[in-house]
Amino acid sequence: MKVAVLGVLLLVQATRGFPDGAPVGACDSFMPRHGTTAALPNPTSPYAVVQSKAHYAPGDIVTVTITTSGPSFKGFLVQGFNPQTREVIGEFLGGPGVQLVPQCSSITHENSRNKKAATLNWKAPHGTSGPVMFRATVVKSYSEFYANLLSQSAGY
């Protein structure tokens, strides 16, 4: 009987995904680790990642917004990087509805409620300046997600 209850609990967790944010293990691949599900093709994504600035100065705050022209989304994982070197740079600031993943300088969702947008604040590193881009994985549902969506600059 105990084995059956444990099996049901594990199955419930597997079908829920990660309602309180992406696990640290997702940092390497930017995949949500929802079993063996493959990412949907990025050109079909209804989600966009838009940043307020393409270049930063030391300590600048860049606003990063995930938006949708279609269905809401349940989760995300976002990271800033230098597009020339691919080095992860900067750090995100916490806020309502998000949680930090400091092990990979990323930010993720705090709950799996449907979202039409997420506005995030990224802080540029001190002592350096240059270009910045953001990559995101956006989860529509447990079995539907888009991985490594790249940001577009709002042109400020």
UniProtKB/TrEMBL annotation:
One of its GO terms (cellular component) is membrane. Residues 12-156 form the Reelin domain. Pfam families: Reeler. It comes from the Eukaryota. Residues 1-17 form the signal peptide. CDD domains: Reeler. Keywords: Signal. InterPro entries: Ferric-chelate_Red/DefProt, Reeler_dom, Reeler_sf. The keyword Signal applies. PANTHER family: CYTOCHROME B561/FERRIC REDUCTASE TRANSMEMBRANE, REELIN DOMAIN-CONTAINING PROTEIN. This is Reelin domain-containing protein.
